[in-house]
Amino acid sequence: MKHFFKALGLVLLFVGVRAEALPVYAISASSACDTCHIEPLGWANPDMSARRCTLDCAGCHVSPAGGGLRTPDGQYYGKEVLPTWGTRPSSFANPMKYKPKGFPKRGTYSLKDGFSGWWPGKRDHTTIEERYGNIEAEPTWNWGGDFRFMALNQTIGETSENYVFPMQADLYGMNESVKDLILYVSAGVQARKDEEQFDNASFRENFTIREIFIKYRLPYNSWVRFGRISPRYGWKVDDHSAFMRNDLGFNQYFSAFGMDAGFNPNYFYADMSLYYQGLQRWPGERLERGIGTTANVGFRDLGWQTGASFGYLNRRLGFDQATAGLQWAVNLNPLVVYGSADLKRNLSEMEGIDDFTGFYTFNELFLGLHRGVYGKFKYEWADPNIRVLDDHKHRVQLGLDWHPYTFVDLEASYRINWTPRVDFTNIASTEAFFIAHIWF
Asked: Closest Cα partner for 287 from 242, 228, 235, 234?
């Protein structure tokens, strides 16, 4: 424990919006066995209770909500699958030596043929030290970080402005001195384009400890955790301005004190959280006070996913919020299509303010063009109050994502906003941006 708190102190010296898990990575990870570790030819199939593979954010990140420090699986995926060039962990291991005679050479998955080409063997995977190549399979200590920089051109009407700013600078630390008992911390600075260059005052104002919790890992890929957490709700994307995240209150500031528990044994999943937000003295807290809960349930198969999410927040300011959403995804490797639809109901206890309901949708097509190169198209729609005429908004985004080398991600996107209806001659605003992302 003494070493853990020393490490925590080092993390707090560093200075973003946080890095989130991308749903497309979790969805597409089913396309081949070696997206998470060296091809497991000849490995024995572990009991269901011992399996950790999942098509969920929690498969690649220590935090079940996604984002932050990567697990060994997540590190392997980021180094092996994503980059165009760079040293790959599989080059440090030879899975063929565990392959019994007569086994096929490679496992595959397709919607037509299903999962084929891989047969379970007899060797216990826990006895294979190099199953993640040169990545330690069960680290006692682990560290990581995400650093993003953005160049943005924003045009509203006749006015065009340019911004260049540090978007993220986060560090993470984890300790598992006791088997399955994980201590975790994530800290950084909440940087925004409208804030001036950081000085000592702005550092103190924007510094935040995003998550600091104790998590106990249970059989059947399950967990319980306590502390400062990011509760789970629906798709968690890296664009915090997405209507289905920001307008529902699940943006980059959505962290609170509480607990959650989850159950995810290939491939059914269910989880629930209970939290208190708005502790004003906590570094980086920007949420109003309230007590809330979220819940998620669904099923993930190798070629498709479907799920539902629910949330309720009791605010001290006099009105509550209830949310409910549906999520879906299809993996047509190399194309991934996924989306969601959410309802938000504001329940007012204040005189003169009526209840109202909002409706939000999100859709994305993510296409693998070449190793490390991905094209994406997004369409979002939102109606903040279905009783009000012409208050809805639309957004279309076209982007290119390139991972040229290990630890490096470059993204260029162009976004058009319309309100209240799509009129190609009447654009509300446009945004062109470039993001450079370095992680480890």
From this structure: 228
Instruction: Give yes or no for a contact between 345 and 312, defined as CB atoms under 8 angstroms apart.
Output: no
CATH number for the domain spanning 163: value is: 2.40.160.10
Identify the DSSP state of 193.
Answer: T
pLDDT tens digits for 379-406? 999 999 998 888 889 999 999 999 999 9
> Of 313, 315, 273, whose CA–CA distance to 294 is shortest?
273
**142 Cβ contact list (under 8 Å, min separation 6):** 62, 69, 173, 174
Note the pLDDT tens digit of each residue in 287-309: 999 999 999 999 999 889 999 99
Question: Could you please report the per-residue DSSP string of 241-271?
Answer: T-HHHHTTT-STT--EEEEEEEE-STTEEEE
Helix, strand or coil for residue 331? strand
Tokens 């639809």, residue located: 341
Q: Give every CB contact of residue 405 below 8 A, 6+ residues apart in sequence.
A: 83, 84, 85, 86
- Integer Cα distance of 385 and 346 in angstroms: 10
Q: Is the dihedral of CA 141, 167, 409, 27 positive or negative?
A: positive
Domain of residue 223, residue span? 141-439
In the Cβ-directed half-sphere of 157, how many Cα atoms lie within 13 Å?
2
Residue 314 lies in a domain: yes
Cβ neighbours around 305 below 10 Å, total: 23
What is the rounded CA–CA span in Å between residue 73 and residue 51?
A: 13
